[in-house]
């Protein structure tokens, strides 16, 4: 599904990713762990197509298509979803307007039938219930004045409505208390399936107690320095990231 | 500018008190220096459209446009003339609502005592013109401790007619101690022949609260030069919201005098321009006494080759210690030919005050744009959504849901004519 080969990327003239390779197949859950500054968030932004995140070498293909050649919205239409570490506040645009625009434009691009307003509202309310966000949040400005946990749950809400093929979750667990983490994990687990893949970018092993990964990768110095199964996460928890200095 | 609004509108008969007021205004208008582009306060706003003859409007037909319902009482004026009869209205005890010409002796005395008292005639030329042309006006008085809860919705329409004519609109609101009222001024029309000169005076007694909305939805060829002049008594609270859609010529001066300690003013406004439209807001907040606060936010979006002016002055007098005053003006230009002249002016003569001001010409936020695009919204639609949000943030803060519902499509429609790009808004 997603094939990253020897990816180099720079931000503000600074090389961050230095030869990252990763292959993700449908149904798999990959966790990418690593210390601050290792390039974890950069990977998410490069895949989502953020301006200023420039891929200088290597390739990324998604379902056989050159991802780096696609506009940000095209990547979304193709089925890639990035849950932001810091979701953006958009005052003056209601969450409902935002969600409807996202779902409509995505379905349109995917050749699916448009949802009428009544059905959409019903879906949105169900999803907000599933992520434990009061329906009043749908009427508020996008993420406006939401707490950290509410923002993350709103990301999950969007993910549920957009039904992406590949979900990249950038430090979705950071800043969450155990209850909120449980809600997010339940949401993710409910969405797991044979056709959908997840890339969980995280600093902490804690998230993986709730969402069991198939693969764990350690990112350091802009490349993956070790891969393994979930036991690798426990090892990291135990040893910390200090030992990476030696491998990197 | 020799032919500047020549031909004053001489109303045939008026009560003596009103005639006196009018004559004094006439004299001031006659003797005043008419502004040119060299006049600082008119540097960016040309008045050449006013260099012609204007008649008084003739008899009018009731308007047929569907009007929104904001709740409460609705009065409709067409070309300055009230449709219907005020005496038929059921008003709560302690509320007086009367046209100047119909005022009884006691009311006339109250009007005469207040009319023009909060306007600095030397600085506001068009208030003099309004005085000079005064044949009638509307007087709202709410007695001490009386609460006029539901909004008084004043609709001012102009009709399509020739030749060019002046609509002289005047509103005087006087709130007694601890009185409360909710007044909506709502201007409509698109006639290139109508020049509206609308002056509003708001006198807030101690502890009173006024919610004031001035929606200038006039478009097309409409010309409006108006003023809102408010005096805030001790611990009173003015919440004033302004909206201007662009038109051929639009200028509004808003003056708020904090006259009693502890007064608070929320002053917010938005302007939306396209084509070759023009809007000019001049606001001036006078902090003459201590312990008063002002929060002022104006935002505008200019498209095509339109031009807007925002001049926001906050003047803190030497005695006005413990003042807190904040002014923010943000602008979005959606075309390289559009223009904004923004100038915050902070004059502070007291030392123990908190003041902040900022004026920016902003771009759409790249982070927001990216966020929308990662959710599948294409760039063109995302840009319109963000522009809408930039303005709508102030509209969504309005408490009147019917008014928000009325304004949402107006905002969206003003941002783009491509309805595909606004289909998810409103």
Short description:
The complex is a heterodimer of chains A (248) and B (426). With 248 residues, chain A is α/β, with parallel strands linked by helices. Chain A has 9 helices and 12 strands.
Overall description:
The complex is a heterodimer of chains A (248) and B (426). Chain A has 248 residues and is an alpha/beta fold. Chain A has a single domain (2-247), classed as Rossmann fold (3-Layer(aba) Sandwich). Chain A is 37% helix and 29% strand. In chain A, the strands form three sheets. In chain A, strands 6-9-10-3-11-12 form a six-stranded mixed beta sheet, with helices on both faces. In chain A, strands 2-1-4-5 form a four-stranded antiparallel beta sheet. In chain A, strands 7-8 form a two-stranded antiparallel ribbon. In chain A, strand 11 and strand 12 (223-228) form a beta hairpin. The model of chain A has no long low-confidence stretch (mean pLDDT 93). With 426 residues, chain B is α/β, with parallel strands linked by helices. Chain B has two domains: 16-260, no CATH class; 366-426, no CATH class. Helices cover 18% and strands 38% of the residues of chain B. In chain B, strands 2-1-5-7-9-11-13-15-17-19 form a ten-stranded mixed beta sheet, with helices on one face. In chain B, strands 3-4-6-8-10-12-14-16-18 form a nine-stranded mixed beta sheet, covered by helices on one side. In chain B, strand 1 and strand 2 form a beta hairpin. In chain B, helix 1 crosses helix 3, helix 4 (366-374) packs across helix 5 and helix 5 (379-395) packs antiparallel against helix 6. The longest helix of chain B is centred in the C-terminal third of the chain and has 17 residues, at 379-395. The relative contact order of chain B is 0.09. The mean pLDDT of chain B is 93. The A-B interface holds A 48-51, 71-73, 75-77, 81-82, 84, 87-88, 90-93, 97-98, 100-106, 109, 141, 158, 162 and B 366-368, 370-379, 381, 385-386, 388-396, 423-425.
């Amino acid at each position: 599904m997603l094939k990253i080969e020897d990816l180099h990327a720079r931000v503000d003239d600074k090389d961050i990713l230095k030869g990252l390779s990763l292959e993700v197949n449908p149904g798999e859950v990959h966790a990418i762990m690593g210390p601050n500054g290792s390039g974890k968030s950069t990977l998410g932004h490069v895949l989502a197509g953020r301006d200023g995140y420039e891929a200088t070498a290597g390739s990324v293909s998604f379902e056989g298509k050159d991802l780096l050649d696609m506009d940000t919205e095209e990547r979304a239409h193709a089925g890639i979803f990035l849950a932001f570490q810091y979701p953006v506040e958009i005052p003056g645009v209601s969450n409902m307007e935002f969600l409807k625009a996202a779902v409509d434009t995505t379905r349109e691009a995917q050749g699916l039938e448009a949802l009428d307003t009544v059905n959409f509202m019903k879906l949105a309310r169900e999803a907000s219930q599933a992520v434990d966000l009061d329906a009043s949040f749908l009427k508020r400005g996008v993420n406006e004045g939401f707490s950290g946990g509410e923002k993350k749950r709103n990301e999950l809400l969007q993910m549920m409505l957009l039904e992406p093929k590949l979900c990249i979750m950038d430090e979705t667990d950071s800043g969450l208390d155990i209850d909120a983490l449980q809600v997010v994990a339940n949401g993710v687990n409910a969405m797991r399936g044979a056709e959908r893949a997840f890339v969980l970018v995280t600093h902490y092993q804690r998230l993986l107690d709730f969402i069991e990964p198939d693969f764990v990768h350690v990112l350091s110095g802009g490349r993956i320095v070790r891969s393994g199964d979930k036991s690798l996460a426990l090892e990291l928890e135990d040893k910390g990231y200090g030992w990476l200095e030696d491998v990197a | 500018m020799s032919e500047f609004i020549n031909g004053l509108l001489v109303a045939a008969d008026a009560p003596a008190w009103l005639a006196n007021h009018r004559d004094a205004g006439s004299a001031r208008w006659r003797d005043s220096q008419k502004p040119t582009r060299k006049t600082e306060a008119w540097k960016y706003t040309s008045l050449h459209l006013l260099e012609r003859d204007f008649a008084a409007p003739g008899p009018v037909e009731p308007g047929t446009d569907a009007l929104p319902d904001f709740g409460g009482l609705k009065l409709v004026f067409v070309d300055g003339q009230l449709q219907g009869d005020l005496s038929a209205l059921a008003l709560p005890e302690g509320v007086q609502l009367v046209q100047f010409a119909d005022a009884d002796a006691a009311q006339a005395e109250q009007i005469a005592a207040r009319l023009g008292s909060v306007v600095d005639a030397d600085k506001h030329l068009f208030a003099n013109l309004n005085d000079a042309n005064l044949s009638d006006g509307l007087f709202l008085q709410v007695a001490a401790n009386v609460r006029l809860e539901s909004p008084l919705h004043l609709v001012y329409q102009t009709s399509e007619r020739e030749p060019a004519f002046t609509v002289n609109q005047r509103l005087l609101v006087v709130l007694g101690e601890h009185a409360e009222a909710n007044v909506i001024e709502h201007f409509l029309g698109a006639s290139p022949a109508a020049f509206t000169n609308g002056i509003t005076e708001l006198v807030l007694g101690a502890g009173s609260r006024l919610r004031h909305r001035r929606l200038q939805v006039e478009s097309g060829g409409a010309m409006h030069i108006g003023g809102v002049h408010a005096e805030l008594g001790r611990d009173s609270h003015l919440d004033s919201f302004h909206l201007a859609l662009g038109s051929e010529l639009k200028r509004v001066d808003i003056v708020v005098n904090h006259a009693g300690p502890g007064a608070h003013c929320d002053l917010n406004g938005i302007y939306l321009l396209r084509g070759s439209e023009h809007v000019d807001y001049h606001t001036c907040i006078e902090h003459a006494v201590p312990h008063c606060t002002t929060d002022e936010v104006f935002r505008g979006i200019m498209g095509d080759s339109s031009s807007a002016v925002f001049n926001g002055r906050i003047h803190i007098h030497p005695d006005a210690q413990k003042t807190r005053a904040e002014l923010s003006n943000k602008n979005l230009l959606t075309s390289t030919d559009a223009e904004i002249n923004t100038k915050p002016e902070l004059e502070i003569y007291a030392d123990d005050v908190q003041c902040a001001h900022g004026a920016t010409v902003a771009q759409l936020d790249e982070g927001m744009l990216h966020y929308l695009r990662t959710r599948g919204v294409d760039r063109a639609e995302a840009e319109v959504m963000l522009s809408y949000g930039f303005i709508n943030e102030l509209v969504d803060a309005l408490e009147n849901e019917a008014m928000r519902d009325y304004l949402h499509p107006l905002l969206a429609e003003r941002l783009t004519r491509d309805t595909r790009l606004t289909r998810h808004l409103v």
